[in-house]
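User: Hi! I'm working on a homework problem where we have to compare a predicted structure to a textbook description. Could you give me the structure for the chain below?
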Amino acid sequence: MSYGILINGHPKNTISAQDRGLHYGDGLFETIAVIHGQLRHWLRHYQRLAEGCERLKLPLPEDAVLIKEAARLSKTLERGVLKLILTRGIGGRGYRIPEAVAPLRILATYPWPDYPERFYREGIIVRICATRFGRNPLLAGLKHLNRLEQVMARSEWSDPAIAEGLIQDTEGAVISGTMSNVFLVQEGTLITPDLFQCGIRGIMRGVILDAAHEIGIPSMIRSVSLDEVYTAGEAFLCNSLVGIWPIREIIGEREKRFSLGDVTGTLRETIKVDHAT
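Assistant: Happy to help. Predicted structure tokens:
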């Protein structure tokens, strides 16, 4: 299986040292599952990219251009990952946005992550991270290039048995995992944290909320406390690559075990995410 990189449509692997994505994290990215050569949930990814471009005042690449370049890299992939990075391009020193912007787009394909089968079958162990998200409504929800909070949170453990860590914000509200969104189930109602202050509005999060609506599972988007995580009847994490990972245990100063519940199981069947497809 071959993997490749395109930069502004050309096969190369270098960018300018003056790129603003490198200097300031000035840009956005999307991580997209590729199954049998097809981009999964492309429209949702493109819509999030478009929202990010509008809020960061970045020119949005044409859908057709990205589709053509993505197809060039991924058409032979049975199962893989496409990462799309968009930066503001070369801008010299200083935070001020250049008057003439020439965005840089990078598309690269990678192997499918080799997560243990037991994560899907039995559920995962998670921990509570000490690192907190800062609140910033201007950037909340976007998949921008500034991901140091996740980097620092993920550096807190090295035990391979622990699949993820839950991150709170500076006010103590539970926001997400380091690479995933979080859902709880209380008395049959699906609950996920609101992300108006910080965090990423994940693609699979949106797929799950839409699926719950379609099959009649009541859902709520609201602030979630850590105490509510420990009292939930079910809990799971999700992202575009793993689909749904049930949480079977939280470890740390407080511990909690969960069973794979009916709501989690129903959603897994409904959205038909097969990690081994």
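For your comparison, note the following. The radius of gyration is 19 Å. Residues 5-111 form a domain with the D-amino Acid Aminotransferase; Chain A, domain 1 fold (CATH 3.30.470.10). Good luck with the assignment!
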